[in-house]
Structure formats: C-alpha cells, structure tokens
Specification:
Length: 505
C-alpha cells in the first residue's frame, strides 16, 4: 500500500502541545505502514512549505495513487490553517529629561547634586548618568562609571578652583534622554557660611504704614563670602528712583522717604552665594483715609424718625472699612450734630427729631486711619410734620372761698400798769374781708386817739396808749361781712403802781 503524506502542522505551540499529550490509539482504518514525519523539517514554515513544494514538483503517478478504500481516512482528517506571523515588539522610547536639577552642597573637592525623576519614563528607567565639563572645554566627562538609580549624586575628586558645567541624563532601553543642566557654571570652592536671612519678628507679618510716612526697614543676613543681594517687588525689579536699597556685610536696608499708596506690595529679598541662596518675603501695606460712601439716600420719614441707606465707599484707603459716622443738620441753624459713631451697617434709623423741623443727613466712612475727609449728603430733606394736637387745659370747678368771719386766735385777759402802753391781739379770717370794730364795755371805740387800731392780713391789734385806772374793762373785737359776724372779748385790768414798787424801780 502506498505511503500517505505527512499531515501539515499548524504551529510549533500546537505541535508541542500534541507531543505532551499521551498517544491516542490509531483508528483501525489508518494503515499500519504510515511513515514517520521527515526529520528534515526544521521549522513550522518549512513543515508547511515542504509538502507543498514536493506536491508541486513531483506529482504522484497514477499507478501509485491510493486505492479508494485507503483514501477514505485521509479525506476524514481535519485540514489545519497556516500560522500567522508573530507581532513584532514595540520600539523602545527614551525617557524625558530629569527635572529640577539643583546644587545641594559644595566644597573644595566635591559637588553634590539633586534632581527629580523624569515626568515621562518612556520604556522604563534604568538609571542616570552625571556628566561635567570644564568651562571653555567641549569635552563632557561621565562622573559615574555605572548607572545610578538615586536622585542624589556626589561628584568627588575635583580640583579646587575649577569652573564646571554639570548635566544629568536619564537612561533606559530607548537610549539617552534629553539632558538637564545647571543654569550657571559651578565654581569648585569651599562655602564657609551658607547665606541665610534673619527676618525680624516684627516684619514677618504685614507691615502697615500711613501715606506720607517714612519707611526704614533693616533686615540682617549672614553668609561667607559676602553674598549677592537682590530685591524685587511683586516679581519685578525695584524702582530705584523711589525706593533706596543700602547693603552692608551684615544687613540690607529698604528706605522710602515718603510712602505712597502704590508702594504697597510683596517685596522679596534674595541673598545668593554661587548656587546657594535664601529668600524672604516682606509685605508692605500703605494705608490712607477712606473716601466717602458712594451714595446716601433718605428712604422714609415718619413721626420723629428718618430711615437712611448708603453704599460702601469706592476707595477704602487700602484697608478695610471699620464703621460709619452719621450726622444731622437742621436747616434753621445749619449746624451738624453726630447721631451715630462707629456704626457697622449700611442702613440706620435716626430718632428723636424735633417736630416741625427740616433735616439733612450726611455719612462719613471710617477705617483704622480715621474718618473720611468728606461725607455723602442726602439730596432729599426730612420734613418732620406738626401733628394736629390742640392743647385743652383741664377744666376745674371753681372753689367758693366765701366764708363768714371766724376768729382763729382769741383775745386773752391782760393786766396793764398805769402809764404804760398795752396792746390787745387776735386773728380773724373770712371772705369777703370782714370789717373790724373794737368796743369797750359794749361801747364802740370809734376814732378815739387814745386807741390805735391795726388790721394786717387778718391780725387785729388794739393799742391803748398810757392807760389809766379808768381804761380797765371788757374789750370786744367784732368782725362782720355779708355772710355774718363774730366777736371775741377779754378783760383788761389797769393797776396803780405802789410806793414800794416805785422804790424798787
């Protein structure tokens, strides 16, 4: 029976898989005399191409064609597809340049560098190469024989006084990255004392000055050799026509003869020795009086009150507004009087206004410097209207003071001495004013010159001038008016002076 051609192998992997599997039993229909796979097939492609070439070059003779019974198993075997070519690996990509290369330390024989890893590592990162080149030479020398994976490297064995340009390159399978170099050549020398700014505690916070004041700030520093000092304001060089800088070996002085608003800002001082530097920031704020409120208006007035509203000033004096002062003025006098001080809101109600007056109001703005020089005045005036109140005095019932005469003080009995004046007294009231009459022994005295009759504010008196023994008796005082009359009486005794009494006198 003629030999069958060897089956086409799909791929090496499948062939290996088939070799690992245990041999399967050969079906009974397969002839026992199948020749083995030729050993001359070295690869999968050769295994695929060899049968094809043999089939094309040497077609099988008709006499050797297999019998129909023997060809049946070959037709039942699966036909395997040719293998696909393998995908080539992607090309290697170099990393981007290292970042932020800076000088970390320096002495008379070595330089210490530090940097940050590349932003894009490409196909990976194997390490870094540090290279240096003497100033004036074009030959770059690698400082490390093997790649370093650290982001810090010390270049040692240098010659004091050399001026070196230094760069760092990142390495990976894609090759060298773009180098990152120090901006300036580095002199190989010993730094005795690194630069350091010693900012005074009072200047670490905001430094506030008024417009027109003098600014004289002393900022000490240290460093050896003498560092290079530079100043900037808001990132720009200083205007030396307005701001003076005086530097010494130990301090730097910022001097402004007369401060202005535009001198406010952030000042930065830098002290530098070679690649070492120190920076300090100083914030200066120049403040002034604020402007007046942008507007003020009279919202409403009722009774003895007026409501006001105003807006914040456009110019706050370069500092915050701390309050407002509200004043009022009567149009009759025009004098301004303060109603509210240090008031924080933007609206207020003024009370206790005088009825019938017309008022104008104004508002001042305040900050830490003081009160604004001008004020915002209301255009409209507040008219405090008079109310229709008519004074009606209370009605009192008229009291009737009419009264019949009545003695409030009675006559008292008296004893008089011959030849010595004596007086009788009593008091009476009544309305209308009563008429007073004096009687002696029920006889009207009348206008007898021996007697003197006085009536003063209801006090009645009868004076008897140099009475004699015949003037003794009963004296009566009678008071009468239209409502009636009243009487009061007393006894008067006139004694004779004896001889013994005369001798005693």
């Amino acid at each position: 029976m003629p030999a069958k051609p060897a089956p086409i192998k799909k791929s090496a992997k499948k062939a290996a898989a088939k070799e690992e599997k245990p041999a399967e039993p050969v079906p009974e229909t397969v002839p026992a005399e199948v020749p083995p796979v030729p050993e001359t097939v070295p690869t999968e492609a050769a295994a695929v191409e060899a049968p094809a070439e043999e089939a094309a070059a040497e077609p099988a003779p008709a006499a050797e064609a297999p019998a129909p019974e023997a060809a049946a198993p070959a037709e039942a075997a699966p036909v395997e597809e040719p293998p696909k070519p393998p995908t080539p690996p992607p090309p290697a990509v170099p990393a981007s340049a290292p970042q932020n290369l800076s000088l970390d330390d320096i002495n008379d024989t070595s330089v210490t560098l530090k940097w940050r890893s590349p932003e894009n590592i490409g196909s990976g990162l194997d390490g870094y190469i540090v290279e240096y080149c003497k100033e004036g030479s074009a030959e770059w020398v690698a400082a490390n024989t093997e790649l370093t994976t650290s982001n810090r490297f010390v270049i040692s064995g240098l010659t004091t006084g050399d001026l070196l340009n230094i760069r760092v390159v990142a390495m990976n399978a894609g090759g060298r990255s773009e180098p990152v170099a120090l901006p300036q050549p580095v002199p190989v020398r010993e730094i005795m004392d690194r630069p350091k700014i010693r900012m005074p505690r009072a200047l670490r916070s905001r430094h506030v000055k008024h417009v027109g004041e003098k600014i004289n700030l002393v900022i000490p520093f240290c460093g050896k050799p003498k560092p290079v000092i530079s100043w900037t304001k808001d990132g720009q060089p200083l205007d030396t026509k307005k701001i003076n800088i005086r530097n010494s070996d130990k301090d730097s002085i910022l001097f402004i003869r007369k401060a202005e608003r535009d001198d406010s800002g952030s000042y930065e001082m830098t002290v530098k020795i070679d690649s070492f530097e120190d920076k300090a920031t100083l914030i200066i704020q120049i403040v002034a009086l604020p402007g007046p409120p942008a507007s003020v208006k009279l919202v409403d007035s009722w009774g003895f009150n007026a409501a006001l509203e105003w807006t914040s000033p456009k110019d706050n004096g370069n500092t915050e507004i701390t309050g407002y002062t509200i004043q009022k003025a009567d149009k009759k006098t025009g004098d301004w009087f303060t109603v509210l001080e240090h008031f924080h809101r933007l609206n207020a109600t003024v009370t206790d206004l005088v009825m019938g007056n017309v008022y104008t109001f104004r508002v001042f703005a305040e900050n830490k410097v003081g009160k604004s020089e001008t004020a915002a005045v209301t255009k409209a005036a507040a008219h405090i209207q008079k109310t229709g109140i008519v004074y009606k005095p209370p009605e009192y019932k008229e009291h009737d003071f009419s009264e019949a005469p009545k003695f409030t003080a009675l006559l008292n009995d008296r004893a008089a001495t011959v030849g010595y004046n004596t007086k009788l007294l009593c008091a009476v009231r009544g309305s209308p004013k009563p008429k007073i009459e004096w009687l002696k022994n029920q006889m009207l005295i009348g206008d007898d010159p021996k007697y003197r009759q006085i009536n003063n504010q209801g006090v009645c008196s009868l004076e008897i001038r140099k009475p004699s023994s015949f003037d003794g008796g009963v004296y009566t005082c009678r008071a009468k008016n239209s409502l009636g009359e009243a009487t009061v009486a007393c006894r008067l005794e006139v004694k004779q002076v004896t001889i013994q009494e005369e001798k005693v006198k």
